[in-house]
Amino acid sequence: MITLYGFGPGFGLPEISPFVTKTEVQLKMAGLAYRKERAMPPASPKGQLPYIADEAERIADSTFIRAHIEGKYGFDFDAPLSLQDRAQAWAFERMIEHHVHSALIGSRWVDADNFAKGPSHLFDGAPEHLREKLREDAQFRVAENYLLSGLGRHAPDEDVDLAMRSLFALSVQLGDKPYLMGGAPCGTDATAFGMLAGILTPFFTSQLRERTERFQNLTDYVSRMMLQYYPDFAWTSVRQAA
């Protein structure tokens, strides 16, 4: 059986990491049995989560895990799509994982209040004398990467303005369809769902979340996907309580 390594539930989400969520949803899409274990990035072959163990193989990075599933188990996540649609889905995936994800990182890790409320607690299990140093180092590295991504070079309202252009593109692409590319889910839906849920969780307060909530079709999409792939997670009641 496949073992999926991730952070686990938190921040009002069934899984903290949008990339672990992506892989978990794709495992569900493929109908593959798996078990899930908690881990931290240093345990991964590439120093990042998710990674999976599949018999003797250990595969890290959600995109390479998808390729492994498709190659070993013969499951085509984009089976309903034409060649042109596959190209468009890949382009949207790159936009989500680079541009939208950078905005999510800024709202969680760079914002001091959200960092204290959420990511700082990832280090609660570290030895007490190291804990604060580990928090500071991790936040510094993330902030540095945020700066290098380009979004971090702008004022807080400007970086959200740029993120909104990508979210507007997603909203237009989704339209009134149940899934991004049509009537059936594809691999990119797992990516979009993980990232959008991470933005929309009421656990964090941010301008990014508030402005994303204006796209009604995106909020409805996340609720549908949550019900489909995490039916036991109380997303609806959490959202209503926010």
From TrEMBL:
Residue stretches in coiled coil: none
GO MF, one annotated term: transferase activity
Gene3D superfamilies: 1.20.1050.10, Glutaredoxin
Cross-referenced SUPFAM superfamilies: GST C-terminal domain-like, Thioredoxin-like
InterPro entries xrefs: FAX/IsoI-like, Glutathione-S-Trfase_C_sf, Glutathione_S-Trfase, Metaxin_GST, Mito_Protein_Transport_Metaxin, Thioredoxin-like_fold, Thioredoxin-like_sf
CDD domains named in the record: GST_C_Metaxin (cd03193), GST_N_Metaxin_like (cd03080)
Pfam families: GST_C_6, GST_N_4
Domain called Thioredoxin-like fold: residue spans: 18-114
Occurrences of domain Metaxin glutathione S-transferase (ranges): 164-225
Alphabetically ordered keywords of this record: Transferase
Listed name of the protein: Glutathione S-transferase
Organism placement in taxonomy: Bacteria, Pseudomonadati, Pseudomonadota, Alphaproteobacteria, Hyphomicrobiales
